[in-house]
Inverse folding.
């Protein structure tokens, strides 16, 4: 009966949640600058009578919904609220009004959905015991990640959170379906900034120079052995350099070359070993060829780990809510997510919400300028998460 009630409320507030999503989509804000977004969230929670804490880890907002059946567990539901520096190309009524900023990763969907969850759960407090924390988190898109800052600010404390659940749009999955995976799911991500210093000069007199371009070329080849000859092939990892800057003309050997890349792994022990090997190769190659190297490794998000026991419970609850035929087993994903920080603190489960509609050509990937969603997915995103929260609170383990 409670499941049916949740589904009915989700349907009744669907247009309101769509309105939330469109408002947020029209007014995107970049990481660490989500002032108006946070104010909008606070306004909606206040209208629902939800107690809240503001300015958590920066601009984070945390809502608290208390069950009236007594004290019990505390669980958390998380949505990220920031947008990306992308110029939107969609010609829709809710197109971004902030030129050069776009909700191209679905954080508007996540935030609107969690506001919808608040609307549902605030009507059902007599049906559960315990506390539900609604975490509206800023700055997922930029290191060090808003999750780490909110954790440092105590978001998982007072009262202590026993488990956390998050959802993310999936433009490769049809709306009406959910994807989930237990165990390791998303990769760690570290950024590599490298400057190779040589000695510039005339391109016709290389004997008088130390060519940083040749050093860079050798270094790139040697660095690929970090993966091909040192990483366990049974555990995915990758090293990609996506940016090289150096030189001004065909006949000028420059003084320096800059490279930027990313190192990703699915194992924290190998992550540390891999970064150490990268540093050793960088300095050894540069020195052996007469140059010098300046290396800046910026540690990013850790491996995202879906707790097996929690994920099994979540999987069962999703099947109960929408049918096992609508649940998809996910593969490993080498993208990174700062939700991973939560999963290293408490049991966590991060699942994917299908948002595609091939018939309507709504298939663009996240981080693209044509990303959009099938808005019927917002009916599932709100009701399902509310159901998962109540099911998790009812679990005695």
């Amino acid at each position: 009966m409670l499941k049916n009630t949740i589904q009915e409320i989700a349907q009744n507030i669907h247009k309101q949640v769509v309105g939330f999503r469109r408002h947020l989509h029209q007014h995107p804000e970049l990481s660490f600058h989500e002032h108006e977004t946070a104010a909008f969230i606070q306004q909606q929670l206040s209208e629902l009578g939800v107690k809240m804490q503001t300015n958590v880890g920066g601009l984070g907002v945390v809502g608290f919904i208390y069950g009236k059946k007594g004290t019990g567990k505390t669980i958390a539901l998380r949505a990220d609220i920031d947008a990306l520096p992308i110029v939107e190309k969609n010609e829709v009524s809710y197109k971004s009004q902030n030129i050069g900023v776009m909700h191209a990763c679905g954080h508007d969907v996540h935030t609107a959905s969690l506001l919808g969850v608040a609307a549902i759960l605030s009507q059902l407090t007599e049906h559960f015991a315990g506390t539900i924390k609604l975490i509206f988190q800023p700055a997922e898109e930029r290191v060090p990640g808003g999750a780490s800052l909110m954790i440092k600010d105590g978001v998982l404390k007072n009262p202590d959170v026993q488990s956390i659940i998050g959802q993310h749009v999936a433009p490769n999955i049809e709306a009406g379906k959910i994807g989930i995976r237990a165990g390791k799911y998303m990769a760690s991500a570290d950024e590599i900034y490298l400057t190779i210093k040589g000695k510039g000069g005339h391109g016709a007199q290389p004997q008088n120079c130390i060519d940083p371009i040749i050093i860079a070329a050798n270094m790139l080849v040697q660095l690929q052995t970090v993966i091909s000859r040192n990483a366990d092939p049974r555990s995915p990892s990758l090293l990609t350099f996506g940016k090289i800057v150096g030189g001004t003309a065909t006949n000028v050997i420059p003084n320096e070359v800059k490279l930027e890349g990313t190192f990703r792994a699915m194992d924290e022990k190998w992550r540390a070993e891999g970064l150490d090997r990268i540093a050793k190769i960088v300095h050894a190659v540069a020195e052996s060829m007469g140059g010098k190297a300046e290396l800046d490794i910026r540690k990013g998000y850790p491996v995202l780990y879906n707790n097996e026991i929690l994920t099994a419970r979540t999987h069962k609850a999703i099947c109960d809510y929408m049918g096992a035929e609508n649940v998809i087993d996910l593969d490993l994903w080498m993208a990174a997510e700062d939700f991973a920080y939560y999963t290293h603190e408490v049991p966590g489960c991060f699942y994917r919400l299908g948002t595609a509609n091939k018939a309507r050509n709504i298939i663009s990937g996240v981080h693209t300028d044509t990303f959009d969603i099938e808005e019927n997915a917002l009916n599932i995103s709100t009701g399902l998460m509310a159901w998962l929260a109540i099911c998790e609170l009812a679990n005695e383990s």
